[in-house]
Every structure is written in structure tokens, then in C-alpha cells.
Amino acid sequence: MGKVILDVENKVKKTIEKYKLLGKKEKIIVASSGGKDSSVALYILNKLGYNVEALYINLRLGDYSERCESAVRKLCEKEGIKMHVLDINEEFGMKMCNIRCGVQQKIKVSNCMVCGIVKKWLLNKHARKLGADKIVTGHHLDDEAQTIIMNFLQGNLMLGANSGPRTRIVYDKKFVPRIKPLYFVSENEIRKYCEIKKLPAAYEKCPCSASSLRIRTREFANKLGKKEKERIVENFLKILPQLSDKFQKEKIIYCRICGEPARNEICKKCSLLSVTKKVK
Fold it and tell me: Which of 54, 59, 133, 168 is positioned for an S-S bond with 244, CB 3.0–4.6 A?
């Protein structure tokens, strides 16, 4: 048991040091979903002495969202971590399911894509309001290997050009950099760590996750060993600087609707939600 704890924590420390992800004086907002991944990230960073606060977005997915919020709250109360809660209904006047259905009535897009775009927008906007220097997500080795494989299957590795342990996007005063301290930690290691430490966490899957490509890719990747997944990620990181050159040269502008950082006149969130006529 002790070996698992030490291995996971050492990997996090080495990743932070190697990629210069965090500083002890920085304010860090952890995107806490209530699941094991973000809960472990929050717990370890707090244990290592970083200035962390949790930000939970309640998507109003019935009892599932309430259980997830409860898990984050219990962990924060136990460890003395400040917690912030965003209610999507208060932000957009409707639940995530309503947003998703409204969008999908007009255009063909997956559940996870709609949710991901909206959550990224909310995280950046509110983390900035909270004075955050960095946003931490719970993405781990398995997530990253699956994403690389998915991008390859779709014939577009450029989709991952802004990936890696930290975002490589052009820096902008309105953009809060996102980092992934668990980048080289496997999902199995995270699960064991969470169970050994008895951290409050919701282990059930999101009721709206139904991306067929992601599911098939996950099934394929789960058959691979840990070493194979590490090779996929390590080899991708070797070519990442070349892929990222395109993004480094692009200029960040501000969405003419919401004023948030974007690469086009209208950001992804506003472009997506415009079909529901509920853009804010």
C-alpha cells in the first residue's frame, strides 16, 4: 500500500518539477468533478503544500450531480480546502441536458463535446475571477493515451497540439493556463491511491457520456499495458513542440459576444450555444 502512495506522489512531484507546472506562491484552482481523478489531484497538491482551492460545476444532472458535489464538499471539509460551486442553471438559465438537446437538435455533435466546451469556458472565466494563476485538471495517463489514439484515428494529430502536461497556447491576460499533474499516473494507480487514502469520490460514470469513438478507443486502450500507454504519450510529447508551433504563432482575440479569449471572432461556446438562442 505504501509503495502505491509513494509512487503516485513521486510521479506528481517529478511532473511538476520537470515541466515547471506550479509554484508554491501561485493560486491554483482545481477543476473538481467529484470523481477519483480530480479528488486525488486536489488531495496531493494540498498535501504538497500548494495553494489550492476547488471549483465544482454543478451541471444539474439529477442525483448524480448532487452526489459528486457532496464528494467534493466532504474532501474539502476534511482537508481544510476552500470550495467554490458554480450552478450551470444560474449561468445559462438551463441544465446541461437542456443545452445539449438544444444544440443537438440543430447540429450533429457528441454529448461530451458540448459539455467539454461549456465547462472549459466556465472554468477559465471563473478561475480568472477568483484570481487563479493555474487551473488543474485530473487528466491521467490513460486519458491522454486514449485522446492521442482518437486524434490519430480521426486523421488529425493537430487536435492535440495544445495538449501535454500544460497548455502550450499563446499566453493572454484573460487565459488561465491549464495543467495536468497526473499526466504520467495511470488510472489504476489513481484508483488504488483513492481507495487506500479513503478519499471521498464518486466512482460512477457520467450518465450522459455516450461518445461511441471514445468508448471504443477506451476498450482498445484498456487492453494495452501500462508501458505501451507510456510509450504512446512519451512519443507524442516528442513531436508536440512541432505541432504546437502553429498555435504559438496565432494571435488570441476576444469573442465579440462574451469577451472571453478565442481564436475566431466568436468563441466555441458562443458558436455552439448560439443555435439554442440562449447565449450569454
Answer: 168
Cell of 117: 466546451
The angle at the Cα of 30, spanning 51 to 62, to the nearest 5 degrees, equals 140
Can you give the residue ranges of every domain in the chain?
Answer: 2-276
CB distance 268 to 133 below 8 Å: no
Topology of domain 2-276 in CATH is: Rossmann fold (3.40.50)
Alpha helices in the chain (DSSP H): 2-18, 36-47, 63-79, 88-92, 96-104, 111-129, 141-153, 187-197, 212-222, 226-249, 268-273
Report d(CA 142, CA 139) in Å as an integer.
8
DSSP annotation of 251: P
- What is each CA distance from 262 to 135, 169, 253, 266, in whole angstroms? 18, 11, 5, 7
Tens digit of each residue's pLDDT (9 = 90 or more) over 13-37: 999 999 999 999 999 999 999 999 9
* Local structure of 157: helix, strand or coil: helix
| Class of residue 264 by CB neighbours under 10 A (exposed 0-12, middle 13-18, buried 19+) | exposed
CA–CA distance, 100 with 105 (Å, rounded to integer): 9
Q: What is the DSSP letter of 165?
A: S
What per-residue confidence (pLDDT) applies to 249?
60
Torsion angle in degrees (nearest 10) through CA of 249, 273, 270, 133: -80
